[in-house]
Sequence to fold (233 residues):
Amino acid sequence: NAGVTQTPKFQVLKTGQSMTLQCAQDMNHEYMSWYRQDPGMGLRLIHYSVGAGITDQGEVPNGYNVSRSTTEDFPLRLLSAAPSQTSVYFCASTLMGIRDTSSGANVLTFGAGSRLTVL
Amino acid sequence: QKEVEQDPGPLSVPEGAIVSLNCTYSNSAFQYFMWYRQYSRKGPELLMYTYSSGNKEDGRFTAQVDKSSKYISLFIRDSQPSDSATYLCAMSAGLWGGSYIPTFGRGTSLIVHP
Fold:
C-alpha cells in the first residue's frame, strides 16, 4: 500500500497562476481532507470530503476549490494564486469508523506534503 | 481563545530526560485524543491514540487524559535525539459525538540534544 500520495512535492507559482495539488489514497478511506501548515499557525483545515461527490468547507476555504469524483482522489485547486497561499499543504484521509463507538475517531493518515511558493 | 491550546516551545532537553508535553482544551464533547509526531519537512504521523480518559503506554511513550481538567499529556521516557520533532495534539468528539473532524493544537517543537 502506498498510503496517501501527494504531488507535486514542490512548486513555485507566480501571482495569478492556477494549479492543482493532487492527492490519492489506496486505503479505501471515505474521509479525505486538505490542510495548510504555516509557522506558528498549526494545521488549518481547508476543505474536506466524506465520500465521492460530497465536499465541504473547512476553516480557510477561500481561494481553493476541491472535487471528489472517486473515493481515491481529492485534488485541491488554486484558482488564482496569491502570495498569502505560500504554505505547506497536507492531504490526510481516514476511515469514517461507523462500525462502533470506539472506532469513531478520526485518526488521520497524512501525505508527505506539498511545498508551494507564490511569488 | 482557541479550542485546543498547546505551547509551541521550543522545548530543549538533554538526552535521557523525561519529557512532558501538554495540551488543554475547552470542548467537553471531545472523546478521542491523539498525538502526532512530525519530523522536519515530513507529514505528521500518529504516535498515540486514546479513547476517553485514562493512560496508555507504548514503549517509552505514555499518553494521559484527564477529562475532568480538560488536560492531556504525552510523556517520553529516556528521550533520544531521534525524538526531536514537533508533537501535535489532536482531539475530536468522534462520529457519534457529532463531529469527526479533529481539532489540532499548534504543535510543540522538541529538541533532544546529546
